[in-house]
Design brief:
The structure is a single chain. The chain has 170 residues and is an alpha+beta fold. The chain has a single domain, classed as Peptide methionine sulfoxide reductase (Metal Binding Protein, Guanine Nucleotide Exchange Factor, Chain A). Helices cover 21% and strands 24% of the residues. The chain has three helices and nine strands; from the N terminus they run αααβββββββββ. Strands 3-4-8-7-6-5 form a six-stranded antiparallel beta sheet. A hairpin with a 6-residue loop joins strand 5 and strand 6. The longest helix has 19 residues. The protein is elongated. The chain binds zinc ion. The site of zinc ion (ZN) has 8 residues, from loops.
Length: 170
Amino acid sequence: MNAKKLIPAILAVATLVAACSAQYALNIKVRSTPPVRKDKVVKTDAQWKKILTPTQYTILRAKGTEAAFCGKFHDKKEPGIYICAGCKLPLFSNDHKFESGTGWPSFYRPIKEENVWYRNDGSHGMDRIEILCARCDGHLGHAFDDGPKPTGWRYCLNSDAMLFEAAKGK
Ligand SMILES: [Zn+2]
Protein backbone atom coordinates (compact mmCIF):
# COMPACT_ATOMS: atom_id res chain seq x y z
CA MET A 1 0.00 0.00 0.00
CA ASN A 2 1.50 3.35 -0.96
CA ALA A 3 1.27 6.52 1.10
CA LYS A 4 -1.55 7.94 -1.04
CA LYS A 5 -3.77 5.00 -0.14
CA LEU A 6 -2.51 4.63 3.41
CA ILE A 7 -3.50 8.11 4.63
CA PRO A 8 -7.21 7.80 3.68
CA ALA A 9 -7.19 4.32 5.26
CA ILE A 10 -5.78 5.68 8.53
CA LEU A 11 -8.31 8.54 8.48
CA ALA A 12 -11.15 6.09 7.94
CA VAL A 13 -10.08 3.96 10.90
CA ALA A 14 -9.61 7.05 13.08
CA THR A 15 -13.11 8.29 12.18
CA LEU A 16 -14.60 4.89 13.01
CA VAL A 17 -12.85 4.78 16.40
CA ALA A 18 -14.05 8.31 17.19
CA ALA A 19 -17.63 7.41 16.24
CA CYS A 20 -17.66 4.29 18.43
CA SER A 21 -16.36 6.02 21.55
CA ALA A 22 -18.43 9.20 21.03
CA GLN A 23 -20.65 10.28 23.89
CA TYR A 24 -24.27 10.90 23.10
CA ALA A 25 -24.59 14.55 24.08
CA LEU A 26 -27.93 15.43 25.62
CA ASN A 27 -29.08 19.01 25.47
CA ILE A 28 -29.82 19.52 29.16
CA LYS A 29 -30.57 23.21 29.50
CA VAL A 30 -32.49 24.55 32.44
CA ARG A 31 -35.24 27.04 31.66
CA SER A 32 -37.58 29.12 33.76
CA THR A 33 -40.72 28.76 31.66
CA PRO A 34 -42.33 25.63 30.20
CA PRO A 35 -41.72 24.80 26.53
CA VAL A 36 -44.51 25.75 24.14
CA ARG A 37 -46.28 22.75 22.58
CA LYS A 38 -49.40 22.53 20.46
CA ASP A 39 -50.61 19.52 22.47
CA LYS A 40 -50.17 21.14 25.91
CA VAL A 41 -52.33 19.68 28.71
CA VAL A 42 -53.45 22.32 31.21
CA LYS A 43 -55.76 21.54 34.16
CA THR A 44 -56.66 23.10 37.48
CA ASP A 45 -55.54 21.44 40.73
CA ALA A 46 -59.12 20.26 41.28
CA GLN A 47 -59.20 18.63 37.84
CA TRP A 48 -55.86 16.92 38.46
CA LYS A 49 -57.08 15.61 41.81
CA LYS A 50 -60.01 13.97 40.04
CA ILE A 51 -57.93 12.01 37.54
CA LEU A 52 -54.78 11.22 39.57
CA THR A 53 -54.33 8.97 42.60
CA PRO A 54 -53.27 10.86 45.76
CA THR A 55 -49.68 9.61 45.31
CA GLN A 56 -49.57 10.60 41.64
CA TYR A 57 -50.95 14.03 42.54
CA THR A 58 -48.39 14.55 45.33
CA ILE A 59 -45.50 13.75 42.98
CA LEU A 60 -46.63 15.28 39.68
CA ARG A 61 -48.39 18.41 40.91
CA ALA A 62 -46.79 19.03 44.34
CA LYS A 63 -43.20 17.92 43.60
CA GLY A 64 -43.29 15.05 46.07
CA THR A 65 -40.64 12.32 46.15
CA GLU A 66 -41.42 8.68 46.84
CA ALA A 67 -39.28 6.80 49.37
CA ALA A 68 -36.28 4.95 47.90
CA PHE A 69 -36.86 1.28 47.05
CA CYS A 70 -40.61 1.75 47.60
CA GLY A 71 -41.70 2.68 44.08
CA LYS A 72 -43.16 0.06 41.78
CA PHE A 73 -40.63 0.54 38.95
CA HIS A 74 -37.18 0.81 40.56
CA ASP A 75 -36.24 -2.83 39.83
CA LYS A 76 -38.50 -3.40 36.80
CA LYS A 77 -36.65 -4.80 33.78
CA GLU A 78 -39.47 -5.73 31.38
CA PRO A 79 -39.31 -4.37 27.82
CA GLY A 80 -41.66 -1.46 27.38
CA ILE A 81 -42.06 2.27 27.82
CA TYR A 82 -42.85 4.56 30.73
CA ILE A 83 -45.48 7.20 30.02
CA CYS A 84 -46.52 10.27 32.01
CA ALA A 85 -49.19 9.35 34.58
CA GLY A 86 -50.74 12.79 34.05
CA CYS A 87 -50.96 13.12 30.26
CA LYS A 88 -49.71 9.77 28.86
CA LEU A 89 -46.79 11.31 26.94
CA PRO A 90 -44.07 8.64 26.37
CA LEU A 91 -41.15 9.62 28.60
CA PHE A 92 -38.65 6.80 29.09
CA SER A 93 -37.85 3.39 27.61
CA ASN A 94 -36.66 0.22 29.27
CA ASP A 95 -33.88 0.26 26.63
CA HIS A 96 -32.29 3.22 28.47
CA LYS A 97 -32.95 2.01 32.03
CA PHE A 98 -30.06 1.02 34.28
CA GLU A 99 -29.55 -0.21 37.82
CA SER A 100 -28.34 2.83 39.73
CA GLY A 101 -28.60 1.32 43.19
CA THR A 102 -30.43 4.44 44.39
CA GLY A 103 -33.83 2.80 44.81
CA TRP A 104 -35.47 4.98 42.18
CA PRO A 105 -36.03 4.05 38.52
CA SER A 106 -33.03 5.42 36.63
CA PHE A 107 -32.49 6.10 32.95
CA TYR A 108 -29.57 7.60 31.04
CA ARG A 109 -31.77 9.47 28.56
CA PRO A 110 -35.43 10.23 27.85
CA ILE A 111 -37.22 8.51 24.99
CA LYS A 112 -37.30 11.84 23.11
CA GLU A 113 -35.42 14.91 24.29
CA GLU A 114 -38.36 17.19 23.51
CA ASN A 115 -40.69 15.19 25.80
CA VAL A 116 -39.11 16.53 28.99
CA TRP A 117 -37.80 19.89 30.18
CA TYR A 118 -35.53 21.03 32.99
CA ARG A 119 -35.76 23.65 35.72
CA ASN A 120 -33.39 24.70 38.54
CA ASP A 121 -34.56 23.32 41.87
CA GLY A 122 -32.98 24.86 44.96
CA SER A 123 -35.44 23.27 47.39
CA HIS A 124 -34.36 21.23 50.46
CA GLY A 125 -31.03 23.10 50.56
CA MET A 126 -29.84 21.33 47.42
CA ASP A 127 -28.96 22.58 43.98
CA ARG A 128 -30.66 20.14 41.62
CA ILE A 129 -32.05 19.94 38.10
CA GLU A 130 -35.74 19.14 38.11
CA ILE A 131 -37.19 17.03 35.25
CA LEU A 132 -40.70 17.89 34.08
CA CYS A 133 -43.09 16.48 31.50
CA ALA A 134 -43.11 18.74 28.44
CA ARG A 135 -46.84 18.29 27.82
CA CYS A 136 -48.45 18.69 31.28
CA ASP A 137 -45.47 20.20 33.18
CA GLY A 138 -45.81 17.51 35.84
CA HIS A 139 -42.83 16.95 38.16
CA LEU A 140 -41.07 13.68 37.31
CA GLY A 141 -37.79 13.65 39.24
CA HIS A 142 -34.25 15.03 38.99
CA ALA A 143 -31.31 14.77 36.58
CA PHE A 144 -27.75 14.23 37.85
CA ASP A 145 -24.51 14.27 35.86
CA ASP A 146 -23.13 11.07 37.44
CA GLY A 147 -24.83 8.68 35.03
CA PRO A 148 -23.37 5.95 32.82
CA LYS A 149 -22.26 6.09 29.20
CA PRO A 150 -23.20 7.07 26.58
CA THR A 151 -24.74 10.26 28.03
CA GLY A 152 -23.19 10.53 31.50
CA TRP A 153 -26.62 11.54 32.86
CA ARG A 154 -28.80 9.87 35.44
CA TYR A 155 -32.50 10.57 35.25
CA CYS A 156 -33.78 9.76 38.72
CA LEU A 157 -37.54 9.25 38.49
CA ASN A 158 -40.50 8.73 40.76
CA SER A 159 -42.30 5.51 39.81
CA ASP A 160 -45.70 7.02 40.52
CA ALA A 161 -45.14 9.89 38.10
CA MET A 162 -45.31 7.28 35.35
CA LEU A 163 -47.32 4.36 34.01
CA PHE A 164 -45.76 1.34 32.32
CA GLU A 165 -46.75 0.06 28.89
CA ALA A 166 -45.30 -3.38 28.16
CA ALA A 167 -43.84 -3.87 24.69
CA LYS A 168 -46.28 -5.65 22.41
CA GLY A 169 -45.22 -9.01 20.96
CA LYS A 170 -41.54 -9.66 20.76
ZN1 LIG B 1 -47.34 14.74 31.33
